[in-house]
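Comment thread on ticket #2218

A.B. wrote:
> Attaching the input chain for the structure job we discussed in standup.
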Amino acid sequence: RWLANALIGRGIARCQALRLAEADADFTAAELALRAAGEGGRVAMCLHNRGFVAMLAGDLPLALRRYEAAARAGLDSGSRPEALVDRAEALLAAGLDEEARRVLEPALALLRRCNRRSPEAVLLGARCALRRGDVAEALKLYRRAGRPDSELMLAAGEVDAVAAQRFRGPARTRALGWLAQARRSDRRGALAACRAGLRVLDQDGAGLADEWVRRELTGVALDLATTPREVLRWGERHRRSYPSPLPPNDPALATALTRLRRARALGGPVEVLERDIRRLTVAAEPRVPAGEPVPEGLPVVSFIVHRGRMLAVTPTEVRTVQEPDALVAAARLAVRAGRSVDTDLLPETDEVVVVPDGVLHGMPWAALRPRVHVLPGLDRWRPPRHNDRRVWVAGPDLAHEEVTALRAEHGGVLLGSTVDEVLRGLEGAGVAHIAAHGRVNTENPLFSHLELADGPLYGYDLARIENPPEVVVLSACESGLARAFLDAGTRAVIAGVLPVPEQRLGEAMAAVHRRIDHPAEAARAVAHLGFSCYGTGTRVAACSAAANDVPVHSDCVEPTVAGTSTPSAMTFTHEP
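C.D. wrote:
> Ran it. Output below, let me know if you need it in another format.
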């Protein structure tokens, strides 16, 4: 025990001296000694200390994993409010602002009851207030703390003092210094400062812990961009500030999702388990989606929400989209009423790539032009592979024999309808058709799900697929899983954003599968039901030879690009 105490003390001193590898070794040795002595509570504290070391080193995923491990090991946060403050800081850095606030509030209350002053906790409360847009409360807490903090100093207008830190300190401090430098410079100097700040974050591997700073830097640069190509380039960097929400494959995540399914079936603590899954996944290294730039010559429109405005950007033009929520509502209403959609959101061309943002994720894009590829980013184009293996999934409680009829016509394998059977069957498929009832979770799209025989197949479950299907058809209305499939590596997803009467699905899906080699054209065949092609729908110019071998049918009426529609007050913010 005395040895463990000495190791912990030396580890703390080494943390203060930023000798982090040595500090981690001390805490690890102390953990082993205490584990042998049977002191579980202090073992948990050593785990927590190792999380603190990882946080100082800028490894946010590792810090979160160690903090969670300490909590599971029985860390007594009731007598150690500082531990709650550490966890809240990591959650805030990960972008889980509400989670951070929930963890921080009991820590602040405990500190007040004990009549203890913690400037670090007050500063963290100020940063939470700043992230939720309450600048006045943030500055009040900042002044009460009486400690410097670069982020809050910027909010208080102390730009010169923050800019002076751009050459020294940790990566976050230097990047904030460059952000301050950008805010006090002319256009040329500000753009150079933004590039320098981003370079600091990239070179130091700051990663997830500094996504807020990265987004602020790209936002300043986007403000200063003058040509359409500059706006397009900085807009894409601004969009990429957030990594893919789909985590990598993790057995612990699979176990947690199984517990969540069981809780839903038996009436367990669903909200608690969902919170645990969010924390578990944010602690993982972010997945880097594969892709390549959109081919030259293909028309592109990138929509970017910035400073409260929706910008429509092409390589030659930047314009502001007025009342985008009304445009989406009008288009959806027109499609549901069987009318055509009249909008100038897209150029008058047969084929176009769209990168939506904000409310425009709810737009029925295929109803606007003949061939629309809806991508998550301009670097997410995926060339087609040749894979003819088809698999079919039929969920429970369907009122039609859609899958039976389609399989009889096209062949393929009918998968079992449990989550594990479906995930195994999707591996390496060429075309996967999933007919199941879906439900969208607008707060966290990865909790959107499809209903299978043993419970929901969540977006998070798709992280288990190592070799995803080439093309996926989601005949469920508004399943919310298109983006998750794209992040997993699927090339194209045909999915809808509107409720579809089940009696119309059979004919519609037959038209889709006759054109499935060209997913963008397949989506157009059912655009009148609200379906679109998400991902690379195969550029027609690149596949003209293959197209000659594919029979073209016109079983479903396709909407034209003309007419009028009536706006409604509804808005839609989730992705399909």
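A.B. wrote:
> Thanks. Noting for the ticket: Residues 172 and 224 are 23 Å apart (CA to CA).
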